[in-house]
């Protein structure tokens, strides 16, 4: 039997002065207490690929999801030159093109002294931006300034003031903090740290429903993943934690509660 046959395809034969031994090739690892090598699944290690990972014998292949392209081993969204970054700063919202080195801040919204924007989210399909104002206890929206879409007629659930700003008719809000848009079903989710609840309503404020109450102290940020039907929120109260649940409020679960103090985003 040759040394190559003795070591197999997964290992290489190492000849020293007084001995010969097998060493696992790159992409393989020795099985504990066994005399053979097995493939290393690099895809089980977080961060191996930017997005998609396919394990192969002795190696792996990285790829990108739909609408992304591979650049320098990273996945970058297609059409990035048209992407806009919106930034909330106290009582105003500005925009810029992050991939355009010549881009400057452009004003998207300027509120008065009563406006204190805590969180915001974009409803791309509806061409609107939504934000929470903890200072006045309101949730407001406005059409994106770049839009050419005509404003729809006002109705009993909203009223237009402050240069096209819509204050949603949601009563009883004390301190709305986080906000997230479900762009699939067309719903709006928010946290109210004054009432210690997480709620949902349609985009104009109708059919409001409380999803989470109890065992929640100071809910802050919230995000939703409508494609998976889940939501996530941070709680920075006396028992700080990060939790998740289905978007109807069921299947509630704590994700992080140890070694965490002030989770606000």
TrEMBL record:
Primary location: membrane
Membrane topology annotation: Single-pass type I membrane protein
GO CC terms of this entry: plasma membrane
UniProt keyword Disulfide bond, yes or no: yes
GO process terms (BP): canonical Wnt signaling pathway; endocytosis
Compartments (UniProt record): Membrane
GO MF annotations, alphabetized: calcium ion binding; Wnt receptor activity; Wnt-protein binding
Record-annotated EGF-like calcium-binding domain positions: 39-76
Keyword Repeat belongs to the record: yes
SUPFAM superfamilies tied to this protein: Growth factor receptor domain, YWTD domain
Alphabetical keyword list: Disulfide bond, EGF-like domain, Endocytosis, Glycoprotein, Lipoprotein, Membrane, Receptor, Repeat, Transmembrane, Transmembrane helix
InterPro entries recorded: 6-blade_b-propeller_TolB-like (IPR011042), Cueball_EGF_LRP_Nidogen (IPR050778), EGF-like_Ca-bd_dom (IPR001881), Growth_fac_rcpt_cys_sf (IPR009030), LDLR_classB_rpt (IPR000033), NOTCH1_EGF-like (IPR049883)
LDL-receptor class B repeats: 186-228, 229-265
PANTHER family assigned: LDL RECEPTOR RELATED PROTEIN 1-RELATED, VITELLOGENIN RECEPTOR-LIKE PROTEIN-RELATED-RELATED
Name of the protein in question: Low-density lipoprotein receptor-related protein 1
